[in-house]
Design brief:
The complex is a heterodimer of chains A (about 120) and B (about 400).
Chain A: E1 2-5, H1 6-10, H2 26-43, E2 48-51, H3 60-72, H4 78-84, E3 85-88, H5 95-107
Parallel strand pairs in A: 1-2, 2-3
Chain B: H1 2-25, E1 40-46, E2 49-60, E3 64-65, H2 71-98, H3 101-110, E4 111-117, E5 123-124, H4 126-143, E6 151-152, H5 159-167, H6 170-174, E7 185-186, E8 189-197, H7 202-218, H8 224-230, H9 233-248, E9 263-270, E10 275-282, H10 287-290, H11 297-308, H12 321-334, H13 345-353, E11 357-372, E12 378-396
Parallel strand pairs in B: 2-4, 3-5
Antiparallel strand pairs in B: 1-2, 1-6, 7-8, 8-9, 9-10, 10-12, 11-12
Helix pairs in contact in B: 2-4, 7-8, 7-9, 9-13, 11-12, 12-13
Classes of the chains: A mainly alpha (about 120), B alpha+beta (about 400).
Chain lengths: ~120, ~400
Amino acid sequence: MTVINIGTDFSRTPGGRLISDGPDSGQLFRERKLVPALREALASDGKVTVILDGPRGYLSSFLEEAFGGLIRFGRFSPKQLKQSLEIVATDPFYEPYKVLALRYMAEAKPAAIAG
Amino acid sequence: MQKARQGPFLRRAKKERDRRRQLAEMALEPPAPEDDTGVHQITIYRRGKVRFGTARERRPMPANFCLVENYEEVSQFLIELRHRLTLMGQRLENLRVEGGVRRKLDWDQRRIDSYVDFASLTRITPSAALVLASEYDRAISVYRAPEWLRAVNVEKWDPAVLATLKDVGFLSLLGVDSPVTNIAERNGIVTVPFLSGSKVQGASIDKLIRIMAEMADSSGIADSETLLKRSRVYDGLGEAIQNVEDHAYPVGAFRDYPVAKKWWMTGAVELGKKRFTIAIYDQGISIPVSLPRWTQYDELRATLAKSFGGEYNPTDYPERDGETISAAVQLGRSSTGKEYHGKGLPVIKAIIDNCAGGTVRILSRNGEYSFSGGQKPSHASHKLPIAGTLVEWEMLL
């Protein structure tokens, strides 16, 4: 099982949506951390746990790009993510971010065009 | 040959001695009277140097420089200031093209046609000071001209106004003062020098929150960093900056004035009242003008059509900006997650719900939207616009 603690493994101050928007973006997190870990987990029938606790907070654009983007760009199917991705928020402060991340994944459509 | 080279040097040295003597005596001497043409003596502060000069005309600032209490006068002044700084910047560019810019600028330093008179200011709020500073920062960024900006008659400025402008970083922007390194408390208020950027930088938001929390903690407000975190200020500021990145500065939208494509933010803490104020400003196209590019625009248009009995493009109706912004905030809140590249307006508003009390105020073009905890949101549309969008939170933690 792979554990990604965003606060310690990525950034205490997550940024915006795209790499071009600035440092520590959702796109960067997805491409650098999440996608490689998920690929490995799927290959080995393992699981990836993402811990949201720690950072100052999250922008909705970061969460949408990081988690919704997994499906939007056709990298993984909802079924694959259900099997191999777990999002954890132990502190109640981070619970709304978990809800938001799960919602973005549930509502993302493959190859949707950004508006 | 050597003599000829010494001549101007000795003359400059004599002038410098005279200037120092005059400076020492300045407090004792009455100001030089205006002559028939209105020409009067001024003191010019520029890049750490103080010089005497003359000016023909002065443009007084509004006495109360507050965008809440004195909106129309302040916005009128800001429009004029933008125009004035743009003209000066263009003139500087022309001088650069013609050559001899240093000599001509040196001449300009002492004989000024008109200047902005800050001595008429009796009150300035940190948010209004941020907008003011951003205009000068725009001029510096666009025209690459820090050496050309100046302050006049600083010795006559109201001490409280001078302190606010110093604390917010305005004086160091003009080169009158060195950059602010120690943040000091004045009359129970701590103001953080403005931060600016052009990207979504979580580290900058973090810095602002940390400085405010440290100042509050050192004054006995317990655990203010946690309180600020729990109010989700980070998210609200981040959403505002993401909006700037996504919507504020589309290519080809600025024909009248060149823009710096930046955001500016500052914060202040009223220690006795446990009141935290944070403001973020951009000089972009504004919320109403950017709405047609929004993915939820069709829903918004339908909502607005219901209110007004017919469809309209918000871009063309500045007199309805207040209602338009209010509808955009409301629509975002009631949305069931369809927003992708949304505007984050509900998050901006929600900060107040997470506090013990407070107010969020959004000024964008001609519109004003405000929401105070426990009350109904209100909106208004002003006759005059501000350039871009100002979001201000006053939070009681």
